[in-house]
Write a structure and sequence with these properties.
heterodimer; A: 318 residues; mainly alpha; MetI-like fold; 15 helices; flat; B: 544 residues; alpha/beta; Rossmann fold; six-stranded mixed beta sheet; 20 strands; 38% helix; 24% strand
Chain lengths: 318, 544
């Protein structure tokens, strides 16, 4: 057991180290942009005195290292400073935005992950027969189409023609869960279609790889049903690669949905960041960057932890 | 007569897809017939490619890979299973007929507990309730001599040894109380001292459960211990079928006689002469990250033109010794003297001539050759690398070497995939000889080969030794091979040389405990040998 704990501690420490490195990259990257924040805020009305005052007020005269440490120290405590453009507290704005994004990602994942695994298992069960080909063909087609195209297509069908769901996914605090789900139905569907293929194909490939093993032949010679063999003997040994690709796609659902959010005018993180990038609101961009990095690193860390825990050799040492 | 299994004119084949040619139907089993009564054991013996595993699996109506059963009948309990529907086949497999694979280590699912896997088929086919099946499994664990039978099933496959896993697989096969068990080389992958335990356990279990069995192996001495009848197969056809006693003691066919008398190469040991070509002194070594020594204070010598056999079980450090001698693993202590000069402990410190003088031949000839190079390129490479030979001179020398290994220059442009196992190993020998070394390290070079082919390789090695005066350090776990080839022997156990000296001395009493165990575990081609050894050991341990 000590070995597993050691590996887990190592992996978590590595994740934190990566996040730290990412924070440096984000800070350095945004600092290297031409012009400075004080200049941005004051714009045309900048006088040398006003600039100097504001710089002193914002702490821009401090050395880069001090500024970085101040920023990181604040970020760790959940304080990202305030946005330059509207002076609002970034943490507060991000909170509602992030929860919206997670809400969308959660429902997309709830549908896509089990569906991808079931389709993957089914494709293996009927390998090279028509169900396999239909599943592979459909998922490949869905991943090949750009998501904005799929988005507009589904809006046309479900919002314009059938009038089942709204085309814009505005959600706000007072809505009931049912209303919210109704509002995000189409973007969830788009996201499912986008991430389904990758996870399904990886599940299929990972299980087919395991199906070559001698213990699968043992299971066949025990007279087990084909699906029992896949589910009980193959799948437990394919968990690590499957979880890995699932986590990559979950990360995508959080950090890569900008296009979908824009298409559906959904008030999520992606849109928030894009807005502030175009306004050169550096503190907001830094905060978003750090959060996205944290989500990405965190989910991949979860994948590795699951891989470690799913390995019987590590879980039950000699 | 109650016939459990009747095989009539069984024909099995596979479709081969040679590149650039239309698909071809290859017949693997060409019309084999045999019957097996309830409670009897049939031994199937033959070289690889004889079709013995294929016939064994046909008793479960199963074709491995692309293998298809194309004709004949297989009757189990008077039902033709080749005509059965998928649903009926499932209740046959794992119910009436079960299977024990060669490599239990690969045949167990690493992610599930042993007990779950052992009773799985029994539950699937509704042959017992869960508690009954578990009780039966525990009892089988006990009969098979597994440690802590009550809790053995709660372990995972990687937590038990290879020999234990093989016995667990036997328990798995016997748990559903089948009518027939197919044992497919169940002891081939085991060390000789483990093999005898597993063999005795299997025999006890067969006797106690009264189950019928097909026992497949390439080792006639092993099959003689467990079977009532033996069928000798070659190229998918029956060579001879008879009672075990008749096959062993009065074989009718030439091929059977060859199998019975295999490994009877006589080699008279040579006395040490001159200065040793290789001197290994006080070598201690360990792998990085492993907190214990794999080799402990090893001292051995090899004389020019002679063979030192290093014998021991897997994990005893034999191959590590070879790695140290080649410089692949730097020892933590001790020194290696070659031809009077001290060799650098690590490979980068050795000259090209040092490297040339020590060559290696490996167990798996398959993986030791680049599959995309021709035999000519493979053998030519050391000629080019060490002697700078090119063009016609190189080709001429390669042809000479091919002549020496009894293949001829017709093989120059062939690829490894076009060679048989024995031919591949010969090419590896030629490659080692091409460097004109004084010492060749042979690491289990005959272990993956059929007995008759292995005999041919050993004879060739002995002839080449006489011609070229090359010394061998011959690593093996097989004592028959040792007897056939060695001048001196080093017995290794857990990283130490426990016994070392000239062959006759090492193989004569008084023995140390380990060497005695090792020697007495080698199956002999003699009925009742297994019982005698087990009885002998029981009495000895009772006496102590």
């Amino acid at each position: 057991m000590a070995l597993v704990v050691k590996l887990l501690v190592q992996r978590i420490a590595l994740g934190l180290l990566l996040l730290f490195a990412a924070s440096i990259l984000i800070f350095v990257g945004t600092s290297m942009l031409p012009g400075d924040v004080a200049q941005e805020i004051l714009g045309q009305s900048a006088t040398p005195e006003a600039l100097a005052n504001l710089r002193a007020e914002l702490g821009l005269n401090e050395p880069a290292l001090t500024r970085y440490l101040n920023w990181l120290g604040g970020a760790v405590q959940g304080d990202f400073g305030s946005a330059l453009t509207n002076g609002m507290d970034i943490a507060t704005s991000v909170k509602s935005r992030l929860s919206n994004t997670l809400f969308l990602a959660f429902w997309a994942a709830v549908i896509a992950v089990p569906l991808a695994i079931i389709l993957g298992l089914t494709a293996v069960r009927f390998r090279d027969r028509w169900p396999d080909k239909v599943i592979s063909g459909f998922t490949l087609a869905s991943v090949s189409l750009p998501e904005f195209l799929v988005g507009y297509l589904l809006i046309f069908i479900f919002a314009v023609k059938l009038r089942w769901f709204p085309s814009m996914s505005m959600i706000y605090d007072g809505m009931s869960l049912g209303q919210k789900l109704n509002a995000i139905a189409i973007p969830v569907l788009v996201l499912v279609l986008v991430v389904l293929a990758h996870m399904m194909r990886m599940t299929r490939a990972a299980i087919l790889n395991v199906m070559q093993s001698a213990y699968i032949e043992t299971a066949e010679l025990k007279g087990l049903m084909r699906f029992t063999i896949i589910w009980k003997h193959a799948f437990p040994n394919a968990i690590a690669p499957v979880v890995n690709v699932v986590m990559l796609n979950m990360a995508y659902l959080v950090v890569g949905v900008v296009v979908v959010e824009v298409v559906f005018v959904y008030p999520g993180m992606g849109q928030y960041m894009v807005d502030h990038v175009s306004k050169r609101d550096v503190p907001v961009v830094q905060a978003c960057g750090l959060l996205f990095a944290a989500v990405y690193i965190g989910l991949n860390m979860v994948a590795d932890i699951v891989a470690i825990l799913s390995n019987p050799r590590l879980r039950h040492p000699k | 007569m109650s016939e459990l299994l009747t095989i009539r004119d069984l024909k099995i084949g596979a479709t081969a897809y040679p590149p650039g040619e239309p698909p071809q139907w290859l017949e693997i089993v060409k019309g084999v017939s045999v019957t097996l009564e309830k409670g009897k054991v049939l031994g199937l013996i033959g070289e690889s490619g004889a079709g013995k595993s294929t016939i064994g699996l046909a008793a479960l109506a199963y074709g491995r890979g692309g293998v298809e059963i194309s004709g004949g009948e297989v009757l189990v309990n008077d039902r033709d299973i080749l005509q059965s529907r998928q649903k009926d086949l499932r209740s046959l497999r794992g119910g009436e007929v079960t299977y024990v694979a060669q490599s239990a280590a690969a045949a167990f699912n690493p992610a599930r507990k042993l007990m779950d896997q052992v009773i799985e088929a029994t539950l699937e086919h509704g042959r017992m309730s869960k508690s009954e099946a578990e009780a039966r499994a525990v009892n089988l664990f006990r009969v098979l001599g597994l440690p802590d039978p009550e809790t053995f099933g709660s372990r995972y496959p990687h937590q038990v040894s290879g020999g234990q896993l093989q016995r667990a697989m036997t328990a798995m096969a016997l748990c559903p109380a089948p009518d027939l068990v197919v044992f497919d080389e169940p002891t081939t992958a085991l060390d000789v001292t483990t093999q005898i335990e597993v063999l005795a356990a299997i025999k006890t279990a067969i006797r106690e459960t009264g189950v019928a069995a097909i026992y497949i192996t390439h080792d006639l001495a092993v099959v003689a211990q467990v079977s009532d009848h033996i069928m000798v197969l070659r190229h998918g056809e029956t060579v001879e079928y008879g009672e075990t006693d008749q096959i062993i003691n009065s074989p009718r066919e030439e091929y059977t006689r060859a199998l019975v008398s295999v490994r009877k190469i006589q080699h008279v040991e040579k006395a040490p002469k001159g200065e040793p070509v290789l001197k290994v002194e006080n070598i201690t070594a360990r792998y990085r990250g492993v907190p214990r020594d794999v080799l402990k204070d090893i001292n051995v010598e090899v004389y020019p033109g002679q063979t030192l056999a290093v014998v021991g079980e897997s994990g005893s450090g034999k191959s590590t010794l070879a790695r140290v001698i080649t410089g692949l693993l730097t020892p933590s202590d001790g020194q290696i003297t070659f031809d009077g000069r001290t060799l650098s402990p690590a490979m980068p410190g050795r000259t090209r001539d040092d490297l040339r003088q020590v060559q290696m031949i490996y167990q798996m000839a398959d993986t030791a050759m680049n599959p995309r190079q021709t035999v000519g390129t493979i053998i030519g490479r050391p000629l080019e690398f060490y002697f700078g030979l090119k063009g016609a001179a190189k080709r001429k020398r390669v042809a000479e070497l091919l002549e020496k290994i009894e293949l001829g220059d017709g093989f120059l442009d062939r690829y490894p995939a076009e060679l048989s196992g024995g031919q591949k190993q010969r090419v590896c020998i030629a490659r080692a000889l091409a460097a004109d070394p004084q010492l060749i390290l042979c690491d289990e070079v005959t272990s993956a080969l059929d007995p008759l082919v292995a005999d041919g390789i050993l004879k060739l090695l002995l002839e080449l030794q006489a011609e070229e005066n090359v010394a061998y350090l011959f690593i093996t776990h097989d004592l028959a091979t040792v007897k056939a080839i060695a001048d001196s022997i080093a017995v290794m156990y857990q990283g130490e040389v426990v016994r070392y000296g000239p062959k006759t001395q090492v193989l004569s009493p008084p023995f140390d405990a380990y060497t005695d165990l090792l020697l007495s575990s080698v199956p002999e081609m003699e009925l009742g040998w297994l019982e005698d050894v087990i009885e002998h050991r029981r009495m000895e341990s009772a006496g102590n």
